[in-house]
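Before a colleague's protein record goes any further, I have to sign it off. What it holds is a sequence and that sequence's fold in token form. My question to you is simply how this chain folds and whether the tokens agree. Thanks in advance; the entry in question is below:
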Amino acid sequence: EFDILVLLLAMSPEEILCRWVNYQLNKVGCKRVVKNFTHDIKDSEVYAHLLVAVCPEDKGPIGLDPLNIQDLTKRAEMVLDNAEMIDARSFVRAHDIVNGNQKLNLAFVANLFNMYPAMDAVEGFEIIEETREEKTMRNW
């Protein structure tokens, strides 16, 4: 467990988000693997599956209907409409997805991660509360 923590601490935010996306894709049976937020997401297939994976039950099911659309811009727009259903349409527009805008796609995925992490609970870890001052000193 300690080795995994050391590995995660050494990773960049993009690498961590790629791991999270791949974990979510695996949960829903998608065989795609994301290595970057430029070329790997241009067809919106990853985002369609990711939204299915993280959608909370109370927000209703999100389907894979966008994958039936051949035009990539229209497909990306449908995926963003699905993201809007769960109040997660932020930072990115359809042409940003299709053009592979790394920064905006990274911001979109980071927002999804923060809103709907959809991670399994881990047993055996103690959460230690800290004061604002302690947190400030730790981050300094």
